[in-house]
Design goal:
Blueprint (H helix, E strand, L loop, with lengths): L23 H17 L4 E6 L5 H14 L5 E6 L5 H8 L9 H10 L42 H24 L11
Parallel strand pairs: 1-2
Helix pairs in contact: 1-2, 4-5
């Protein structure tokens, strides 16, 4: 299926013009409606691949509802690209756990679309969230909208990371094609 062009980026606020966001409930409803039409047309599986942290809770809520509404008739899963493997995760968080346009993301862009990277605008900005109890919108944690060290990004690192992520995703899809539930579903109604 085609990618969804918009997701949930409320944490970025309207501080940086051009940032667009769906509300969490809009994203969740969108996923539920897509799944409903897939189910109506005969599909029995959906694997959602997410690459934005801000989408995760909305997607998990949608999945919980879909699993409840269609238990035993539809399989749905979520894989966050930045968590495909322990190695991928470590690359994403090596310059801060609250990452935004960090080394890993910038390296991927240098490999995939180098013209989109404005190298003259790259400024590192440290992760200011370790030890915090509360969560904050990005303008309260970052001076420039990013968190991490994009200045350390290289095209070669992006190539290696992309290949590693692609291989992991290929494995997930292969397994998903034949996966069955650990136990059959039996409704109590």
């Amino acid at each position: 299926m085609p990618t969804l062009s918009y997701g949930c980026s409320l944490g970025h606020t309207d501080h940086w013009p051009g940032t667009l966001s769906l509300y969490p409930e809009t994203l969740s409803t969108t996923i539920r409606e897509i799944a409903a039409f897939l189910i109506r047309t005969g599909f029995r599986k959906l694997l959602i691949v997410n690459s934005h942290w801000g989408n995760t809770s909305s997607l998990r809520c949608a999945i919980d509802r879909i699993r409840f509404d269609h238990a035993g008739r539809f399989q749905i899963g979520l894989k966050n690209s930045f968590e495909f493997t322990r190695s991928v995760w470590n690359q994403f968080i090596d310059d801060g756990e609250d990452f935004h346009a960090n080394r890993a993301e910038t390296a991927l862009m240098l490999f995939l679309d180098p013209a989109a990277v404005r190298k003259d605008k790259i400024e590192d900005d440290p992760d200011r969230t370790p030890g915090k109890i509360f969560t904050y919108v990005v303008p309260q944690t970052s001076k420039n909208g990013l968190t991490g060290a994009p200045s350390r990004a290289t095209t070669e690192d992006g190539r290696k990371l992309f290949i590693e992520m692609g291989e992991a995703l290929t494995g997930f899809v292969k397994n998903a094609l034949t996966e069955t539930a650990p136990l059959p579903y039996q409704s109590q109604i």
